[in-house]
Each structure stands twice: as C-alpha cells, then as structure tokens.
C-alpha cells in the first residue's frame, strides 16, 4: 500500500494512512488487490475519517473481483470506475493467448482517490514515479510535462488514459503475430497444422472486442454522470469540470481507436482463413483439371490398345510385322494431337 498527498504542485508520499484528511489537496491511496482484501477494515476506517463515508459492500466485492468487466457506478459521496487493462503478460511473444486483462478499480471521492491494482500492475508505480519527477524537475521531459493532477477525478482519468494507450505496444505484438499466422496459412511448401492457434487468436480477438466495448460503455456512463452534475457557481470549479469533460472525451476517443483496430485485426483474421480455404479450393481445382486432362488424353489410347487386345484371329495388322509400329505411330500422333488441342484450349499448364 502506498499513500500520497497531492497539493498544488507538491506530490508527497506518506509513510502510513494519516489520521485525518489534509487541510488542502487530496490523498491518493494505491493498494494491491490481495492487500486490499487483508486491509479492508483499515482502509474503510480511514475513508470514514477522511470523507465521512465508506465503500458500499457491493463495491468492495467489485474491487476484489479479478474477473469483473469494465463498468461505472456512483453514490452520493463517491464514483466507482472499474477498468480492465490491456497488456501483454509473461511469454506473450509466442501466442495470442498470453494477454492480461486484469481489472483496475478506482474509487473517486471529492478529496480521496482509492485505486485497487493487480499485483503486477505498473500503473501505480508509473504515476508515482512520473509525478515525483514532475515535482522535482529531474529531467527535461518532466519540466515540459503536464502539471500535477489537480483533483482525484483528473488523476483517475489520466490512469485510465494510460491503460488505454498502453494498448499501442500490445497492438504491435498482435499485428506481428497475425502477419506470421497469415504467412503460415499461405505457405505453399506444406500443409498448415496450426488451426488451434487460429482458433485461439480468433477467440481472443473476440474477447478483446468485448472488453473494449465494456470500456467504452463505462467511460460513456462516467461522462453522462459528469454532465448531470448541477451547474457550479464557482468559476474555478466550472473550469475544472470542463477540463474533466475534455479529458473524458479524449479517453473515449482513444478507446474508440483501440476498438476500431481490434475489429480490423479480427476482420483480417477472418479474411485470412477465408483466403486460405479459397487458395486450397483453387489448388484442388487445378489438380482435378490436370487429372481430368490426363484421363482425356489416355482415353483414346486405351481404346486403341483395348481394340487390338481382343482375342480374334481376323483382326487387321495382327499378323503383320509392321503392325505394332503402325499402331504405335497412330497412338503417338493421337496422343500428341489431343495434348496440343487441350494446350490450345488452356486446359494444360497454369492459368494466368
């Protein structure tokens, strides 16, 4: 568990949960899901002291559920956003099945942000390090970067945007794997035996599409909730809400882009399979055409040999010393003639 106090441009990590909320700024509490389950009473007590309210039991169950889809819910004192990340896990370079979609929970109070992460999630560490660098001005990137988030809602949206943009790295991996799959499908040197990989990739692309649609629905509900807030009388509050709406729409646009690309990959996978079967069907037709032409060439030759193979004494040329050569010449001319005819009709050779 990591606790941070954000006030203006100051970003300070606290050693423990404070007894009371700070006079200015807000608190960010980032905790692993397993630790949140163990320290639930401690966190609930701290939220009660800071905000005057606790998380609803159903929302606690949602935050502890590692299979929950992306969704949004709210109460009169906080908003709850569960957002499933898209990231490559472990040995993701070998198969499309290695994709981590663990959910990240964000409970947004007026002056407190509680985030519940998977054990190996880098979102918390990334923002903690980045905000500390922005405060200290450790490098040029930090000096020119965006300012410290002024509110818990702003920080939550930045985390969500980071999780969406992290799909860009996963997109390159998926595209590379799909290209390799297409090359294997159209390999002319041998049969394709990786149909289980094709099935797994299609199933996972369907899963990614469902996850992206859930993400879009959650952000849309978040935006609707922001629009339903009563008008603010304070100009600073009104400006802050406008900035939140702009950032929310930007996150929604990024999700739409991700969803479009996932659907494009899904279409490419479907088209690759269809083109594979079309190529196999075309190859089968070529083989059958060649066999049919060969059968048609040898059909009159078999007729000739069958005729002279009849067991009769009165067959012409049967007792002639030149009979074999005459029949052989006729069969040779007949075979060459039929082959030339089929070649002129383009029944032989590759079609162009």
Detail the topology: elements first, then pairings.
Blueprint: E1 2-7, E2 10-14, E3 26-32, H1 33-38, H2 40-51, H3 57-64, E4 71-74, E5 79-84, E6 87-88, E7 99-100, E8 103-108, E9 112-117, H4 123-136, H5 140-144, H6 152-165, H7 167-185, H8 195-227, H9 235-308, H10 323-344
Parallel strand pairs: 3-9
Antiparallel strand pairs: 1-2, 1-3, 4-5, 5-8, 6-7, 8-9
Helix pairs in contact: 6-9, 7-9, 8-9, 9-10
Descriptive account of the structure:
The protein has helices spanning 33-38, 40-51, 57-64, 123-136, 140-144, 152-165, 167-185, 195-227, 235-308, 323-344, and strands at residues 2-7, 10-14, 26-32, 71-74, 79-84, 87-88, 99-100, 103-108, 112-117. With 352 residues, it is an alpha+beta fold. The protein has 2 domains: 2-174 and 193-279, CorA soluble domain-like (Beta Polymerase, domain 2, 2-Layer Sandwich), CATH 3.30.460.20; 286-344, Methane Monooxygenase Hydroxylase, Chain G, domain 1 (Up-down Bundle), CATH 1.20.58. The strands form 2 sheets. Strands 2-1-3-9-8-5-4 form a 7-stranded mixed β-sheet, sandwiched between helices. A two-stranded antiparallel ribbon has the order 6-7. Strand 1 (2-7) and strand 2 form a beta hairpin. Helix 6 (152-165) runs parallel beside helix 9 and helix 8 (195-227) runs antiparallel to helix 9 (235-308). It is rod-shaped, with a radius of gyration of 36 Å. The two termini are 68 Å apart. Residues 91-97 and 138-145 have low confidence and may be disordered.
Give a quick summary of the entry.
By secondary structure, this protein is α+β, with helices and mostly antiparallel strands. It folds into two domains: 2-174 and 193-279, Beta Polymerase, domain 2 (2-Layer Sandwich), CATH 3.30.460.20; 286-344, Methane Monooxygenase Hydroxylase, Chain G, domain 1 (Up-down Bundle), CATH 1.20.58.
